[in-house]
Structures are given as structure tokens and as C-alpha cells.
Input
Amino acid sequence: MNLLLASCLTAGARLAQPGEFTLRAYLNHKIDLIQAESVAAIIEASTNQAAQCAIHSLQGHFSTKIHELVNTLIKLRMLVEATLDFPEDEIDNLHTIKINEKLAQICNRLEQIILSARQGNLLQEGIRIALVGAPNVGKSSLLNQLAHEEAAIVTEIPGTTRDTIQRTISIDGIPIHIMDTAGLRETNDIVEQKGIERTHAAIHSADMILSLVDISQQQPNTTYPIQQVVPTGKPQVTVYNKIDLVHDQPGIKEQENGIAIYLSAKTGVGIDLLKRKILDLAGWQLNLAGEGLFMARQRHLEALGQAHAHIVCAQSAMQHQYQLEILAEELRLTQDALSSITGEFTADDLLGEIFSHFCIGK
Output
């Protein structure tokens, strides 16, 4: 096979660049940018649900929703721009076309797309969770219980885990990337100090923190200021582990500093409660996880957020003595943000729409 390949190269052929065939399909308008990204998403999918979600995007479900919204915006822009540029012509008044209602409809449709996109992003990207706490509180046992394998060494000796261990599990099709970290405590051990430094890095890179506490201890080890190393605003759950040693019952309680879950990583009691709470905090809504869910990357979410912000500004412009110039600009920016998702935007699109619908300059 290598000899055959070498002969082809000698004859003038060249090796394909990474993603070249998909790139050519995009450049030749066979697929749009969303569909091109879906090819990579299918390859990267770590669960069956994520793969199905990416396939729906490849089939054009996401693109269709964006195109429909862009077409609605173009028609609305066409009327606003025509009113601005040709006020003397007989063009439908903005009152008669109920522009406020149309803006509200666009905003509602955009919010629905954003909600679905966030669900698709969860399926594709998953959630990064860091298990943190003092040594010997059961972080490694919890990792093993969630992963259904002996991923981490578990002993009675505090400080057994010196490095960050990561495993990916699936909860309702959502990839959950769990990081077991070194126990947080003051130590003079150089190797353990390095492990604690990596724990800090894992905390900052995680989307959610599970802070473990050994409930069987009379006075839990709280000498290390765990709260001080967790960034403000990051979702955090306090996990009271080893309830089997104190004959307590599994459950979820609201505390002053957040949510607390009582479980046993050793026996598995209360693990299902933890899984449900992880999905709730991540924003997963099972009722939206239908067959039509599409893949969305972070750049898609950012572009959708920008589009939503601009359409809200457009609504505001209509509330302040019909500032048509501002309205027209906000509608243009909304369209630009949406078109950046599919990679299809040309300034001539709007011009063609205007002259095809109005007899201007006759």
C-alpha cells in the first residue's frame, strides 16, 4: 500500500489536506458551514445521542431554521430600508405591516432556536466536572462508581491520588467528563503539591464543581479553604459522602451556600440523585431532547446571543419615536450574526430583494 501511494505521489498526485473534501463541498456551495462542522461533530461524538444530533445538523435541520429566520429578516429590512430611502414613494406604512408584532415573532423564534441550540451543545460538548475536597473523602470512589470501573486507586491512606484522572461517562446521552483531583490540604510533599496545583487548574477549567465532604467524621476536614479556590458563579454541589457509615438516608437538601446531596460512593446509594442534579444544573431539558435536536457549537451560541441582543435593540428603537435608522442598523446586525453561522452573507442579497419587490425609480 505504501509503494502504491508513493507511486501515485511520484506521478503527480498529492496528499489531501485535513478536511479538504468537506472544505471543497463548502466552497462549492454543496453544504453550508453548519453542515461542514457537523461532519467533524459526527466523528467527535462520544454518545449515540450526540451522533444523532450531529446527523440532524448535517441533514440541514439547523440550517433550515437559520435560513427561515434570515429570510424573514430580509423581507422586514427591505420594507424599513425602502421607507428610509424612498419616503416619497407609496410603500406600505410600518404601522400597517405591524412591525412590532413581526419583531416580537422574530425574537420568540430566535429564543426557541437558542434553547434548542443549548441542548444540542450539551450533547456535543458535554459537561466538565471536577471532584474536589480534602484527602480521603471518597473522590476516587465516586469516580469509580460513576464510571463503573476501577479508574482510580482507592486506599485508606490520605493523599493516594497525586494526579488528575479523567473519565467520560454518559447520563441520558450527555457526555460527562469527570476529573478526580488530588486532595486539597497543606503539605510539604513536593509531589503532592504538584498534584494540588493541577487540582486548581481542573477547578478553573471545569463547568461544575462537586465538593466532597466525609460525613462520617465528627469534625470534617475543612482546614483547606476550598471555597476560596472555586471561581464565583460556577455551579457547585456539596456531596456528603459515606452515609453508609452513619446509617443516614440519601437525599437532596437546600443549604445557605447551595445544594447538598447525601450519598455513599461505596455502595452507590444516592448516585441517581446526583446524576439528576448534574443534568438539572447543566440546563438539560429532557422534553426538548427529541429527534429534531441539532448540533450547536460555542460559536453558534455566541452568534445567536448577538442576534438576540440586536433584535431586542431593534424592538427598543421602535418604542422611541420610531428611530428607523437605528432599527435598520439593528436588523442588519441581526442578519449578519445569523448569516455568520451558516457562512452565507453578501451585502448584495438585500439589494436584490428590494429591486425585485418594488418599482423604484420608474
Summary: The first strand starts at residue 127 and ends at 133. Residues 126-285 form a domain with the Rossmann fold fold (CATH 3.40.50.300).
